[in-house]
Amino acid sequence: MNQPSTSETIHDLIGVGFGPSNLALAIALEELAQTNGHALDALFIDKQSDYRWHGNTLATQSELQISFLKDLVSLRNPTSPYSFVNYLHQKKRLADFINLGTFYPCRLEYNDYLRWAAEHFATQAVYGEEILRVEPELLDGRIDHLRVISRSAQGHERLRRARSVVVGSGGTPKIPPVFAPFKDDPRVFHHSQYLNSLEQLPCTQGKPMRIAIIGSGQSAAEALIDLNDSYPSVKADMILRGSALKPADDSPFVNEVFTPDYTDLVFNQPQAERAKLISEYHNTNYSVVDIDLIERIYGMLYRQKVAHQYRHAVLCRRNIEAAVSTDKGIELTLRDLATGIQQTHVYDAVILATGYERRSHRELLAPLQQHLKDFEVDRDYRVLASPELNAAVYLQGFCEASHGLSDTLLSVLPVRAAEIGQSLYQSLGQRASNARASATLASA
Question: By residue range, what is the domain housing residue 204?
Answer without folding.
Answer: 174-248+285-352
